C-alpha cells in the first residue's frame, strides 16, 4: 500500500510540477545551461526511486499487460540510449523524461494492487479534468495561471490556454484521449445508470470545450474523426440494440449542438483563427514542412548518429523553424540518429500493441489517436511526461469502466 501511495504522489507531481512552474521557481529545467540534474523532471526521480524499491522487494507483476521480460528489454534499451547520448554529448534529459520514465512507471504500476489501481484511475480522471477546467478558465480570462515557456524563454505572443501541465499540445492530447474514452463508455457501458451517464456526458463536454481552449488543430480534427467513428460504427454486435441506438442518436445530437455552440462562442475565436491561418498557425504549419526539408541537409553520418545541440540550433535558424521540430520521428532522428529512432519506434509500437491486445475496448481508438497525434506534432520529441500519462491511462481506465458490450 505504501508503494501505491508513493506512486500516486509521483503521478500527481508529474502533472503539477510543470516546466512552467519550475521556470517560475527559478529552476533551469528547460534551459541549456546549469546542472544536468536540474534538467530531469522531479517525477522521473520519484518514479525511479519507487522502481528501485519494487525491484529490491521483488514485487510481483499483477496485471501482466506487458511481460516482465519485454519490459526489462525496453528499460535496458532506454538506459542504453541514455548512455549513448552521454557518450555523444547529446542531451540525455529528453530520453530520461520522455522515454525512460514511462517504462519505470509502467513497471511499478503493473505491480500495484487492485485498490491502488482503482484509486490511480480516479486520480488520473480528476487530474485530466482539472487540467481541462483550468484551460477553459484561462481562455475565458485571457491569461494563464503559469508563464508560457519554450526552451527556458518566456513566450508572450501565444493566446492558447496551457492548463496545469503547462503546454497546449499535451493538454489537448489528454483532453482528446479522455473525451474518446468517455464517449465510448457513455454509449456502450451497460452497467451505467441514467445519473452516471449524465455526469459522464457533462465531463465529456468539458473536455470538448477544453479542446477549443487548447487550440491544437490536429487534435481537434482527429478527436472529431474518432468520435464520429465511435458513434456511427461502434463495436460490432450492438447495432441491433434499441437502447444503444437511442443513446447514439442522443449523444450525436448533444455533440453536434455543443460543437455549434462552442464554435460560435467568443472564446473560440482564437482557435477558429488558427484553422483560418491566423494566430501563428501558418508558421506552425511551415515549421512542420521545414522539418522534412531539414532532413535533406543532413550528412550520412548525421542521419545515422544524430546531431548535437549546436548543430540543431544552426539548422533550425537556417530553416526558420521557430516552433522547433514539430514531428516526433524527425525530432528523434535529429536527437539520436535513424538507428536508435527505428529501435525506439519499434519498442514504442510493441509496447502499445501489447497493452492493446489485453484491452481492445475502447483502447484501440486511444492508441491510434495517440500515434496519429505524435506523428503530426513534436509529441515525444521534447521533454514531456505525455507517454507516462498515456500508458497509465491505458492500463487503468478499464478498471472502473463497468461492463461493456461485446468486445471487438
Overview of this structure, please?
It is a single chain. With 408 residues, this protein is an all-alpha fold. Helices cover 67% and strands 1% of the residues. It is built from 18 helices and two strands. It has a two-stranded antiparallel sheet. Strand 1 (149-150) and strand 2 (153-154) form a beta hairpin. Helix 7 runs antiparallel to helix 8, helix 8 (194-214) runs parallel beside helix 10 (242-264) and helix 9 (217-233) runs antiparallel to helix 17. Mean pLDDT is 87; it is low at 399-408.
Structure described in brief:
This protein has 408 residues and is mainly α.
What is Rg? 21 Å
Please indicate the percent range of residues in DSSP E strands (runs of 2 or more). Answer: under 5%
> How is the biggest beta sheet arranged?
2 strands, antiparallel
**What low-confidence regions span 5 or more consecutive residues with pLDDT below 50?**
399-408
Within the largest sheet, what's the order of strands? 1-2
Q: What does the average pLDDT come to? A: 87
- The tally of helices reads 18
Could you say which structural class the secondary elements and strand pairing correspond to? Answer: mainly alpha
The helix content is 55-70%
Order of helices and strands: HHHHHHEEHHHHHHHHHHHH
Amino acid at each position: 500500500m505504501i508503494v501505491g501511495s508513493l506512486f500516486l504522489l509521483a503521478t500527481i507531481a508529474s502533472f503539477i510540477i510543470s516546466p512552467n512552474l519550475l521556470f517560475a521557481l527559478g529552476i533551469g529545467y528547460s534551459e541549456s545551461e546549469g546542472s544536468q540534474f536540474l534538467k530531469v523532471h522531479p517525477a522521473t526521480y520519484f518514479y525511479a526511486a519507487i522502481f528501485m524499491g519494487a525491484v529490491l522487494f521483488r514485487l510481483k507483476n499483477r496485471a501482466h499487460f506487458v511481460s516482465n521480460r519485454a519490459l526489462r528489454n525496453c528499460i535496458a534499451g532506454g538506459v542504453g540510449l541514455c548512455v549513448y547520448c552521454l557518450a555523444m554529448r547529446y542531451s540525455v534529459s529528453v530520453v530520461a523524461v520522455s522515454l525512460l520514465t514511462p517504462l519505470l512507471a509502467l513497471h511499478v504500476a503493473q505491480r500495484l494492487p487492485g485498490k491502488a489501481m482503482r484509486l490511480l484511475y480516479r486520480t488520473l480522471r480528476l487530474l485530466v479534468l482539472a487540467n481541462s477546467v483550468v484551460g477553459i478558465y484561462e481562455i475565458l480570462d485571457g491569461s494563464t495561471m503559469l508563464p508560457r515557456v519554450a526552451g527556458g524563454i518566456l513566450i508572450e505572443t501565444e493566446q492558447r490556454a496551457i492548463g496545469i501541465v503547462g503546454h497546449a499540445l499535451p493538454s489537448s492530447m489528454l483532453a482528446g484521449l479522455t473525451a474518446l474514452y468517455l464517449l465510448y463508455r457513455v454509449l456502450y457501458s451497460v452497467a451505467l445508470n441514467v445519473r452516471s451517464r449524465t455526469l459522464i456526458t457533462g465531463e465529456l463536454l468539458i473536455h470538448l470545450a477544453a479542446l477549443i481552449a487548447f487550440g491544437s488543430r490536429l487534435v481537434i480534427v482527429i478527436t472529431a474523426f474518432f468520435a464520429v467513428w465511435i458513434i456511427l460504427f461502434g463495436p460490432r454486435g450492438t447495432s441491433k440494440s434499441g437502447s444503444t441506438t437511442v443513446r447514439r442518436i442522443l449523444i450525436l445530437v448533444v455533440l453536434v449542438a455543443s460543437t455549434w455552440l462552442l464554435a460560435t462562442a467568443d472564446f473560440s475565436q482564437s482557435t477558429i483563427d488558427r484553422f483560418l491561418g491566423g494566430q501563428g498557425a501558418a508558421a506552425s504549419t511551415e515549421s512542420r514542412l521545414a522539418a522534412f526539408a531539414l532532413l535533406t541537409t543532413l550528412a550520412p553520418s548525421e542521419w545515422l548518429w544524430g546531431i548535437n545541440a549546436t548543430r540543431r540550433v544552426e539548422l533550425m535558424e537556417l530553416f526558420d523553424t521557430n516552433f522547433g521540430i514539430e514531428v516526433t520521428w524527425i525530432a528523434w532522428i535529429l536527437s539520436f540518429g535513424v538507428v536508435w529512432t527505428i529501435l525506439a519506434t519499434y519498442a514504442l509500437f510493441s509496447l502499445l500493441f501489447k497493452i492493446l491486445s489485453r484491452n481492445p475496448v475502447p483502447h484501440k481508438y486511444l492508441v491510434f489517436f495517440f500515434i496519429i497525434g505524435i506523428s503530426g506534432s513534436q509529441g515525444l520529441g521534447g521533454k514531456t511526461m505525455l507517454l507516462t500519462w498515456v500508458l497509465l491511462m491505458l492500463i487503468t481506465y478499464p478498471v472502473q469502466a463497468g461492463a461493456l458490450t461485446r468486445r471487438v
